[in-house]
Specification:
- Helix content is 81%, strand content 0%.
- By secondary structure, it is mostly helical.
- The chain is built from 5 helices and no strands.
- The protein has one domain.
- Helix 1 runs antiparallel to helix 3, helix 2 packs across helix 3 and helix 3 packs antiparallel against helix 4.
């Protein structure tokens, strides 16, 4: 049924858009918090894992967003469901660019393990 395919594709495209870094609010309110939660959880067990976990999980949410958005739109329009290597490489490249911005925020100390926020607030008192 065409309407089921279009609904499934539309849902997949919306979820993909929410995970993609195509607008600042998506990234700020979806990808970064998801990546931070994952990195915080990992840093509770092994603190040096915070930065790599943040970068990797942020990057994975971006790639997943692009892939889901592309596949969802493709599913809505046609029954073809292939995802070319070129399309994947483009999506990976864009995600790497955004990941560089997140890495810069970590290096500047804006994003850090959750315990560091509490230590700095406690140290000021």
């Amino acid at each position: 049924m065409a309407w089921k395919r279009k609904m499934a594709g539309g849902t997949m495209a919306v979820v993909g858009f929410m995970l993609s870094p195509l607008s600042w609010w998506n990234d700020l309110f979806v990808n970064v918090p998801l990546a931070l939660v994952f990195a915080w959880l990992l840093a509770l067990f092994y603190k040096p894992a915070f930065q790599p976990a943040l970068i990797i999980s942020y990057w994975l949410t971006n790639v997943a967003g692009f892939v889901l958005m592309h596949k969802g739109a493709q599913t809505m329009v046609t029954e073809k469901s292939s995802y070319s290597r070129r399309e994947l490489l483009r999506d990976v490249g864009i995600s790497l660019l955004y990941t560089g911005v997140i890495l810069l925020l970590v290096k500047l100390g804006i994003l850090q393990p959750i315990t560091a926020y509490f230590k700095s607030a406690h140290g000021r008192q």
